[in-house]
Amino acid sequence: MTEVYLSYNNIVSSLGFDSETVVSNIHNEISGLQLIDDKEMFFKSFCSSIINQKELNNSFTSIAVEGNFTRLEMMMITSLNRVIQDTKIPLTKNVGLIISTTKGNIDILDKNSKFLEERAYLGSLGKVIKDFFKFKNDAIVVSNACVSGVLAVTIAKRYITQGIYDNVFVVSGDIVTEFILSGFNSFQALSSEPCKPYSKNRTGINIGEVAASVLVTKNDTNLAKEAVAILGDGSCNDANHISGPSRTGEGLVRSVKLAQKEANISFDNIDYISAHGTGTPFNDEMEAIAINRLGLQNVPINSLKGYFGHTLGASGLLETIVGMHSLYNNTLYSSLGFEEIGVSQPINVITKTITKKLNIFLKTASGFGGSNMAVIFKKINMTSK
Amino acid sequence: MNSNYYISSFCSIKNNTISLNGSMVYSNENMEFLEFIKAAYKSLDTNYPKFFKMDGLSKLAILAAHVLFKNENINQDKDNDIAVVFSNKSSSIDTDRKHQKSIENKDDYYPSPAIFVYTLPNICIGEISIKYKLFSENSFFIFENFSAQHLLDYANSLLSAGKTEKVLCGWVELDGNQYEAYLYLVTKIGTILHSKENIIKFYNT
Questions:
Q1: d(Cα B36, Cα A171) in Å, to the nearest integer?
Q2: Domain spanning B6-92+121-203 has what CATH number?
Q3: Nearest residue in chain B measured CA to CA from A182
Q4: Which domain holds residue A11?
Q5: Residue A254 with chain B: CB contacts under 8 Å
Q6: Among residues B87, B55, B68, which one has the least CA distance to residue B134?
């Protein structure tokens, strides 16, 4: 079986425009969330992590001289550009491009958008990114709700193990729009204060935005220092409800078991769980139930939503990248926003950032449509700091 | 990686006609999409009242799956190890426009969770998974055009990695009055080879 690695990576977010800066902010428990009162964007104030437009423009103009790009395209290009630069891999026929997003350029549907409606189609987004960097292959766009970002990584792995590509660049992104805010608000799932995953008085989610990119490769030379190997993955539907998670955590339990089976490790080997933890009553409760059914309740766990909010189709990749750095830095990052435990089953929420020898982590995600995803990653560089 | 897989049956819904393995099972001309799909639902003895709550894309996908799975004798009362790999061009744009319309006017603001939940293309896979108890992997891909090669590669990768027993693959597209569904089931035993040529041939049938 071909080993597949996650290597060079980047995060463009309100906490910085490269992974190291972002992770160092997380280390210092700095949140990108803030209260936003902008009636143009949404009729009531909301809590979100939003990328500063001026900084994005500055960063973008250093790589692109001309052309009209949407905000999301600028974020994605800025992020992917850094990873392509770092890897120095020529974009030949053996190099694939995967884009994960839930809503892409959905802001174009707004009647005030200066872009043509065609640009709102996700295929157009794929073409813009492909053409910008001159990839030889068409972009593969995956849009599978909130598991998209981590699903994209396993899709890349499959393309590599099938022998179709040697290297795959994955870029994921979603933006904060009235479209999304009004939708989650109609579900009464939107919190007006910073989210509190797994806490007793959690009040719902915050929507955030990021673009995140990673190189997925089978080449074990010239890997990034924080590179990880993908040991196993699993994805199972709840077959229960389109907008609510399963009460029993069935799909998530099955996903983790599938990933563990492929990884061929014991659950005792898992040092850390990077969970979904949106801060809604039902999601967090479902995860706690699933984790207990799996016997993983003592493994340190966090949700990173307290730093970025829920970044939809990008969240899975964003959190995977932070997990890679977590292993490399041998540091468990605090689950920001956590107060008193508020799920019915015990879980070991990380309340304070601490150093600890780490080797293997489990990333999980769940989303609308009943999707669940679990991937197990192992550190490559044993001589890390 | 060179194991052979097979296409056990295929279903298409286009031009106001539903066909299974190339033979027509229902046709009703001179109707707009939503009218047509409702008439087809009634005529095909689907008996799944949730259908009426679904958006157009999910109605299209679930009816195609119904025709295909009925032919395959898929038992709805037990777990079925069938992964779902769908694709289209327009994602959920049809429902996206509806949600956008509901927030366009500040004096007439009516976003609804019943519509918003369908602003994701993979919801139609969720609907199929619920109806047929598919606790399996699902992925929704967006391509400018139907991509037989991608579906072939991806279904093969799931089967050869031992992730699933069967894969329900296809294209479910809805944009205004333009619609098209083409689903086929990939299995480990059978007679018709799971090849790019056959996927394209049946797509054009």
A1: 39
A2: 3.40.47.10
A3: B111
A4: 5-217
A5: 135
A6: B68
